[in-house]
Amino acid sequence: MDTGLVGRAYRLLTEAADALAAAATPSATDAELLSALTLCEGLTRRLDRVVVDAVAELQRRGTFAERGYKSTAGALADLLGWERFEARRRVTAAEHVSPRIGLDGAVLPARLAATADVFAAGRTGLRHVEVIARVLASPSAARLAPGVWAGAEAALADKAEMYTPSELQAWGTALVEALDEDGADPDDRDPEPVNELRLTRHPRGGGKLVGRFEDAAMFDAIAAVIDTKAAPLTADDARTAAQRQADALADVCGFVLDHGDLPQAGGRRPHLNVLVRLEDLEHRCRSALLDFGGVPAPAALRMLACDAAVIPVVLGGTSQPLDVGRSTRTIPDGLRRAVAARGRGCEYPGCGRPPSWCEVHHVIPWQDGGDTALHNCVMVCRAHHRLLHHSDWIVRLRHGLPEFIPPVWIDPRRKPRAAPRPHAVA
What we know:
Organism: Pseudonocardia aurantiaca
Distance between the termini: 47 Å
Protein name: DUF222 domain-containing protein
Order of helices and strands: HHHHHEEHHHHHEEHHEHEHEEEHEEHEE
Strand content: 5-15%
Helix content: 40-55%
Family: Belongs to the Rv1128c/1148c/1588c/1702c/1945/3466 family.
Pfam family, one: HNH
Largest sheet: 5 strands, mixed
InterPro entries: DUF222 (IPR003870), HNH (IPR002711), HNH_nuc (IPR003615)
């Protein structure tokens, strides 16, 4: 236990909670029990404010990103055992009712200043903050003049104390629509007929896709495929719709590369080429270059080598090709089927994505002498494969089944976590 300010505060809070519990016993009067309920709710709201401010500060520092998480909500879910929607609720509050830091380092007021005041005073809860943020992010609210928008926010904050979140949602929506009397400006222009997709590569890897499809049938064909694969993996999936769609497109393209009937590109079926310098190859492939100019980080390269069709192209000091290997698959099909039969999909707790959309991860990395065998392989989806390679999560096999060990900052005891498995049927 921390012996500093946080530790002392925790001990005082625990003592106060124990005293409150001792007062709210079956022998207490009705008035005492009702008072205990009211006090507990007030304390919960004050603690929520502490949590929200801590989340905001951690986001400003980039603490979770440094530990391999792209999503603050995902990190909070693993750290505190929250459902993803509970984590997102705190993140939303942190983004709207905590002070901000400008580019020059100056402290700026919260986006929802009036809501921040009533939340800090304990007059409203997290769900009310979430509702106010949602109402004021609507298209109708975006069309309001700044002064009118601020007035609507103050009115919503004032009503939050007397309305339930559902009532506040309905009242606030009606208020914003009434203030937005004219609605969206009419657009009488004929849309330009466009069917195009632009791919822009970034110098250091990755890129941008911008497309527009005037042909409704063409768009529906694309949308149907992406929509099918962009559904949340579980009820706890913290990715935004845009993130899920981006992952879905990459997954679909990867699946087609592996299983689809594609025309040959340059006389061969399209796959990834990994260009490796001889000195890097001699140092266990710490650096490489992809066909389209991207330079994968060492962790990303190791992730790629876990389960992919790779053609190594070894380059000399003047970048001349010294050797071009054959396309080989790191994980043989028979082994992949065995791993899939054991896990039935992603084996990370709470995921369960099907095997056809998963990759096989070496528990002990191949470059460190790990075998490409069932006792050293785990099936994970791309998102959790990335987490294993870019964070301090560890996976191990115990009695032939995978266990995932969280980082110390999530669980100081590092208690292993495993996906529940159905009982065997005799």
